[in-house]
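Dear support,

I submitted the protein below through the web form. The confirmation email said the job was done, but the results page showed an empty box. After a refresh the structure appeared. I'm attaching both so you can tell me whether what I see now is the final result or a partial one.
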Amino acid sequence: MKSFFNGMLFGIILGAAGFWFIQDKARQHPEAQQRAEAAAAQAGSSAGEAGKHLSDAFKAKLDTLDLSSEQIKDELARTGRVIREKAGQTGDALADAAANARSTATINLNSRSKILTTSGFCG
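What the results page shows now:
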């Protein structure tokens, strides 16, 4: 525990010294500071644009999945609960697949038992 605090204190001191060094160099070279501020402003504006594009893409995806707040409110008012159509379709598909698997397993079991009985392996 003591070594953790020593390491943390060393990190704080090292970070403060690095910050002071950077600030001192920035005061000595104002044109570099202006370029850094311009680059930071450009990065901020491009991040804002990227956020806007991400927001637009997210809204489009919600519209594609019929997840707008108005649609959910209408469905909740109509049925008293929110069940998405695609979730219901997925459930139906899974139920059909399970029924098909059960039927296939039963058919395979019956045909194997007939093969074994006719070939003399089973009683």
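Response: this is the final, complete result; the empty box was a page-load delay. DSSP finds four helices and no strands in the chain.
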